[in-house]
Amino acid sequence: MHSVETPSHELQVVCSSLLQYFDKFFTGRLLYKPEVRQLRSVLHNKEFRPPSAIYGPEHFLRLLFQYPQLVVHTDINENTTVIICEVLNQLFKYLESHSEIFLSMDQYSSSWVFA
């Protein structure tokens, strides 16, 4: 997925950062209220796994939408910001060209099963 302009190491750093943000802010920022209840039910019955190992592209898109608001409070230099923007642009292009990985609205709504 990376281009000549984005060195592999920098791409790995951005991807690692996205996973860390996903796991850290998942419950408080990325879930809707019904999903929080669903998550509690799942976690009560199973061993812990990080949210990034359980949830899919719909939730990842929520993170990408909020990502600029999250990183604005960090000490990221201009060069790193440019790299992050480039990687995210590439990622958005990939997601757009692979839209089949997302649930349809009917599938997404029917997947909300509450205990």
TrEMBL record:
PROSITE patterns reported for this sequence: MRG (PS51640)
Record-level GO cellular component terms: histone acetyltransferase complex; nucleus
GO biological process: one example: regulation of DNA-templated transcription
Domain MRG: 11-109
Subcellular location per the Swiss-Prot or TrEMBL entry: Nucleus
Keywords: Chromatin regulator, Nucleus, Transcription, Transcription regulation
One Pfam family of this chain: MRG
Database matches in PANTHER family: MORTALITY FACTOR 4-LIKE PROTEIN (PTHR10880), MSL COMPLEX SUBUNIT 3 (PTHR10880:SF15)
Record protein name field: MRG domain-containing protein
